[in-house]
## 1
Amino acid sequence: MKHCLICNTAIEPFIDFGDMPLGNGFLLPEQFAGEYRFPMQVGFCSTCGMVQLLDQPDRERMFHDNYAFFSGTSRYMALHFKAFAHHVMTDYLSGGDPFVVEMGSNDGIMLQNFAAAGVRHLGVEPSKNVAQVAMDKGINTVTEFFGADLARRIVAEHGPADAFLAANVMCHIPYIHSIAEGISILLKPDGIVMFEDPYLGEVVEKTSYDQIYDEHTFLFAVASVSYLFEQYGLEVIDLEPQTTHGGSMRYVIAPQGIRPVSPRVAAQQEKERGLGLHLPDTYEHFRQNCESSRDRLMTLLTDLKARGKRVVGYGATSKSTTITNYCGITPELVEFISDTTPIKQGKYSPGAHIPVRPYEEFVRCYPDYALLFAWNHAQEIMDKETAFRAAGGKWIVYVPQVAVLD
């Protein structure tokens, strides 16, 4: 029996993915024998509504000097974060000399927009290699983990923040009470918090179980986010659904009673109840859907192998680690995974040990089928890969259901 990280209620897993490697733990053959794994089980807390991993690796194992994810490699995400930053500057930074803090600022893909506008800013990024990319662009960055202690030091050095931002980061942090406390220390009395993460409702509706991996401690919904932040004198004042990462929610949070609450908040909470996100039976049904999706994908890949067809993975994503290991996908079924990230090339995928090769190998000799691991960037990829389809190539997708796209 484990206890909820938000309210300490005793909870049990509703799904067990087995022993999983690190989602971004790409490795060399000599590292196979010592590869780290952890028990990846997911539970639902009926008290606060939070869906969460019951165990997670130490943060230093996941976020370190060789972290293999750089936000700036996606043109689409660069445009997304430019719009995000513009929204904050236009709608929430009305005072003189505003100060913005971003947690998990990665390579500076969002803060570079504030820097260009002359806005005081600070990125908090614990992975030194990606933080260095940001600093090389002139973006003020500290390589630490955010929490209450760091918040006090930031206030002492820079003053309180007008805005605290995070994108695809808040859900990574099991010690989230320290984050919420740090925000309450750091924020001005009329400041705002804006963060976005994959949305639980989308994961349940689409059976996108690959959103569950070592870095994603939580799958947020409005109810659980509200429960957490209300303990620190903060409330959700607005919501902005996003298409990024296969369906995300952007939460706008402020000190209680300071700003008006949008009717979108109550409307989304009502929708969540309609989806049954507060009911244990919903997650039992989700487990069954995950198992069915896994079985259909393996049947398809096994059949293609028997027919002598070449299948190559597209995008060595963190999410692909869940798919390959939960489904049991091997190099015999997927020849290699094509990826444009140099730090991953020449290595092997976590757990499944499928070779990761440069994108040029995908183009040099197109496979019969491409298994789209980076499905959350499907539109950007489809627009780019017209030559693959023109050559007769077909896409395999598994969200929202397993299918072959001609």
## 2
Amino acid sequence: MSERNTSRKPLKVSEPEMRTGYDFSSAVRGKYYKRYLEGTNVVVLEPDVAKRFKNPASVNRVLREFIRSPKRGQASGPTAATRKRVAR
């Protein structure tokens, strides 16, 4: 496994790994382990795309409209290759 936090300074021998004050007495080990193994459906939007949406619900609404669209995935007009052929 590679080190991810290379910019952090290493702990001194006298420093504890975690600050005091955390209470894990009611924690459940492996609570989300099975869910983690199933994978994730997180999609990260590029910043310019994310600016167009107010919240996750608006993204889902647009995607559902796209999925229901009968011409899904088809170009609305002639493609660049078609335009070149017609122009010759």
## 3
Amino acid sequence: MRVLLVLMLAAVMAPVHCATPVIFDTDIGTDIDDAYALAALIHRPELELLAVTTVSSDAVARARLAAKLLQVAGDRWAKVPVYAGTSTPIQYMKQVDWAKAFTSPSLHESGAIEFMRAKIEARPGEITLIAVGELTNIAALLESTPGIAKKIRAISLMGGSIHRGYAAGSKPEPEWNIKSNARAAKVVFESGVPLLVAPLDSTADLKLSPEMRVELFARGVPLNDALAALNSIWRHTNTWKGENPTLFDVLAVDLVQPRRPYDLTALHVEVEADGLTRVVAGGAANAKVALTVDSDAFMRTFVDSLR
């Protein structure tokens, strides 16, 4: 009896490993990697998805797309709130037609920044923002609420170009998420919030091959079926003639709670007016940057996880 009591007390007193709360801020609907990143997040039980917020172009249409993808994933995910954030001039985003006229009690056509503010104020120091689109929503949150930067656990973002651009062996170039609103990116990089950064250096080679897509889509899982539909729309309509998706945004999800250790480099990164991200030697580090990744291992883990 005494041994049993000790074991029971040990179980009660054992540390509880809680999931890390996250908010996923996305421009889902233009490139296809946002949809894959949301699917990856759905398959990460160590991350607690509090909400999805959308940004740029028609943010409401993007929110419908995210909400429908969550509903397809199942009842638990259908309850995750989706809030539209800041809209901007219309961009290519043909995937949103897949969710045209979709409605859900979890879908909100505005309120992204207010939701983020309220959650962060209620759980100071706990919440990580995963930002995989332009940083307009995040900058608006930081600028509208003095002192809130100190209450954000971290921002894990896909963006920037440190030593290379989109093509292998190319020079650094303004990356889409940063150059789409360079002023907002500058606000984020100067905010003092701990930054986890997935730049082109480590993401531009994360290619989802035809063989990998067949493996994913042949599983007959509703979420994977939805990804197949969105991938087909993207494949046949994207304006840059892309064939094999590059999973830029998935790395930003993984950096929050890595499945394997990443070699992160502490850097002082500044954002130029044209969106170029420049490393300042000798400056106090404001970001931990994933400059390299084992692309083959990363992609294999991703494909295996979506079951």
## 4
Amino acid sequence: MKVKHFLSALEHKRIHQAIRSAEEGTSGQIVLHISHRPVEDPLAAANHEFRKMRLETATDKNSLLIFLAPKSQKFAVVGGTTLHAKVGQAWWNELIALLTRHFKESRYTDGLVAAIEEAGRALKTHFPAGATDRTGQRDIVEE
């Protein structure tokens, strides 16, 4: 799929709502980062953006970043060290498999929403919290 078709197929409002809902009642943060550049190693690029956005410095180290590189048709998911320790590698593998299944069927928004909902469940289980002020937080970043 061409990049412009991919981006126009994404339902930003639906994704934004899914992130907001997933973050309710948790101290965790979820960010979708869409890179407009080709990427050879999506995991390295995701980790770079995770650090650049200072998500690794979150108090609970429980942030999650979904990184998409449509030009390269690649993606990665990374998270804070405490989140990783709580959910384990099998959970991350399942999250990647969930996204992969949806993406192979060209159901990009559905895949992202499903992954965000799953991330929200994990965050609420391991990092419950009251209302968190996320004023000014960007949950979808395109560069």
